Amino acid sequence: MKESALLRLIELKKYFDSPQGKVKAVDGVDLQVFEGETLGLVGESGCGKSTLVRATLRLTEPSGGQVIFNGEDVIGFNRKELIKARGQMGLVFQDPHSSLNPRMTVAEILRRPLKIHNLVEDGEIYDRTIELLETMGLGAEHMIRYPHELSGGQKQRVGVARALAVEPEILFLDEPTSALDVSVQTKILKLLRRTMERLELTYVFISHDINLIRTISDRIAVMYLGKIVEIGEIGTVFFQPLHPYTRGLFNSVPRPDPEHKIEEVPLPGEVPSPVNPPPGCNFAPRCPEKIDRCETEEPPLREREDGREVACWVV
Description:
By secondary structure, the chain is α/β, with parallel strands linked by helices. It has 9 helices and 12 strands. It has helices at 49-56, 79-86, 106-116, 125-135, 152-164, 182-199, 210-216, 234-239, 244-251, and strands at residues 7-18, 21-33, 38-42, 64-69, 72-73, 89-92, 170-174, 202-206, 219-224, 227-233, 302-303, 309-310. Strands 6-7-8-3-9-10-12-11 form an 8-stranded mixed β-sheet, with helices on both faces. Strands 2-1-4-5 form a 4-stranded antiparallel β-sheet. A hairpin with a 5-residue loop joins strand 11 and strand 12. Helix 3 (106-116) crosses helix 4 and helix 3 (106-116) runs parallel beside helix 5.
């Protein structure tokens, strides 16, 4: 295990009020992100991935827990301190079509974070804007365009450039290629890889696409119903998953092999309601390997000999 983490989440929670009760979108997540790595965060839609990132950045206020970034707890920051911290933690949103202000030109979109964080002098803003565009494979001709005049891939490049404008230490990418076609996805991913290596960035890459996460990540964290159930090196977890949910999730991914047969029901049953989760393990109602303890006692994340952490009483 590495000695220190750039970002550490401790018992992070985010609950929402609803007519049915408290929706436990993020329910006590412990997670570490190390400098220079790409951490892939995977799970079914609705498991809490995006909410976890928003709570980390305090775009939505956490209900409890700690967010330790560079040794300081972001949860206790005042507005001025929070703005400074957000200058070190960038975010690329999932939908490039709705994440850019339609009333702003590309130049205005990129200049805004530069002005908010006072990163460059007024006379240097033009050159910095051009530099950001060229980093993303765009040019000066895109500066005067509005988002509706750009393709989906160009919009997402602008979104990445906006996140990089503040020169963050860590970049959160919330399914940044899900709204793009395959050929554009590949270009964006190659661009992100080159940018990471050149700027020595740390990535947290959120996706439900297991194969994409496998190709881009160093470690992988698997999330289910607001909790992390398994986390470890990508080669270890992907090729030998231990948690029953991780195995079922990976088995559901199609493989380009006509001889490979997918299990008929890799994940039986339905995901329990986050308003009323099971009393023990969240996955117990769907788990074919459960024991009595699983239904009454929540398993903690425990480190194994191979360095991964798994929340399961059975494995």
